[in-house]
Amino acid sequence: MASNSETRGSSADYETMMSASDVELLKRAWRNEKAAPEILQYEGALVERAKEQIELVEESVEDYVENGKDPLLVSLYQMDLDRTQFLLRSYLRVRLLKIEKFMFHNLKSEEAERRLSEQERVFATKCADDLAKHFEETVLLKLPENYQSVLKQSQISEVDDMVPQPHLDTFVVCRSNNFVSLNLYEEGESPETVEMERGDLYFIRYKIVKGAIESGQIDLI
Amino acid sequence: MYGRKGYQLLKDFASGEKGQLKPFNSKLFDETIEECDQNHHLLQSLIRKMQQEDLDVPNNRNADHYGALIHHLSLMRNKRCLMAYVYNRAEIVRDLAWRVGLELLDLPSEIQEKLTSLEKEYFKNHSVALKSYMGKVGIELNVDMVPPKDPYIKVRILDDIDEGIVLSDKTTNFARHSMHFLKRTDAEPYIARGQMEELTD
């Protein structure tokens, strides 16, 4: 009887343990980030909440282990905790890898810079400095003057032409949450639109759905 | 033929397995840089020649101008080849930092031989940047690289690891060829370094 009431009490606890909607939000942010070719807006508040909740659950799991609670339950909590931790870590990792890949672009483009968190910005500047220093020492200082810039091909170039940029034209799979009507081509050209019903799957160029993803109307898969 | 050495350098890089480094080809690298210098001298002498003939350099399109243009383009192409070589190697170095570990000494010696001292410097600097980010965010980002299926996994030890390693819930004695049932997060760094293997059956 005592064990029955314990299990009933603990299942109520389990519901409140990880706020289900936060995990859903984290999963959605993680999926979008993984599929998008460029870096998306940093979900600072979500990450903070997730961190706090993970800490709380970790503490309670430790308590349970010490109090000798049913090991099956404990390992279930542990598995759920592991999964959420993996989501959080992978989300931050994917962002870091994108920063590493497009270092110079992220610092140059204001739009991209706005999407980084404070610590990511520090990381990106340090990374870019490291790489620029590496380039200078290995190659650039040995080349003649006028060709020693990291970002330009030579002094004669008018723009920074040695900066790799993310490919916004890649195709992505997306599903829409609402009814959305999008312009397929650039402004001024023949305005063909594609209309998406709720729940439709589309295989489309990233550029076109970019705005809709930011406003949350479309999800990447 | 201008540009051939740059091309050979990149072919050398591409002929290695994807994701694996070959030893830094300093010979070809230095030869390409020499070619750049050569191009630059010839470029400057042609421009000086045009200036001595009192011709307006940017606008006068004679044979010297086109000669200078070829040198300039060849120089830019060589610069791009060299930068691509260094950039791609640096990308692999960063990838190593994520997969194997952030300490230079943790890298197996075969890999350490293939890096130049400058690349090792870059590896150290990059590790510092990563560590400081992880410290500020408060979360370790090297573990959990694979989505977790089971919290505990069976492993077999391949190398002799020091005795008495303290894991999160017990101390164990890792003798060679012994099998253990460990938490995934504890075993991952050892598996990444090749000191343990996961048993899946």
UniProtKB/TrEMBL annotation, chain A:
Claim: Ligase is one of the keywords in the record: no
Family named by the database record: Belongs to the GINS4/SLD5 family.
Function of the molecule: The GINS complex plays an essential role in the initiation of DNA replication.
Name of encoding gene: LOC104788461
Domain annotation GINS subunit: ranges: 72-137
Sequence ranges assigned to domain DNA replication complex GINS protein SLD5 C-terminal in this UniProt record: 166-221
Protein's name according to its UniProt entry: DNA replication complex GINS protein SLD5
InterPro entries from the UniProt entry: GINS_A (IPR021151), GINS_bundle-like_dom_sf (IPR036224), GINS_Sld5 (IPR008591), SLD5_C (IPR031633), Sld5_GINS_A (IPR038749)
Keyword tags: DNA replication, Nucleus
Organism: Camelina sativa (False flax)
Stored Pfam families: Sld5, SLD5_C
Keyword Protein transport attributed: no
Coiled-coil features, chain-numbered ranges: none
Main location: nucleus
Source organism, top-level taxon: Eukaryota
UniProtKB/TrEMBL annotation, chain B:
Chain ranges of the GINS subunit domain: 46-137
Keyword Nucleus: yes
InterPro entries (alphabetical): GINS_A, GINS_bundle-like_dom_sf, GINS_Psf1, PSF1_C
Keyword Nucleus (UniProt): yes
Pfam family, one: Sld5
Intracellular or extracellular location(s): Nucleus
This protein's UniProt keywords: DNA replication, Nucleus
Main location as per UniProt: nucleus
Residues annotated as domain DNA replication complex GINS protein PSF1 C-terminal: 149-200
Residue stretches spanning the membrane: none
Family designation: Belongs to the GINS1/PSF1 family.
UniProt-recorded name of the protein: Probable DNA replication complex GINS protein PSF1 isoform X2
Taxonomic lineage of the native organism: Eukaryota, Viridiplantae, Streptophyta, Embryophyta, Tracheophyta
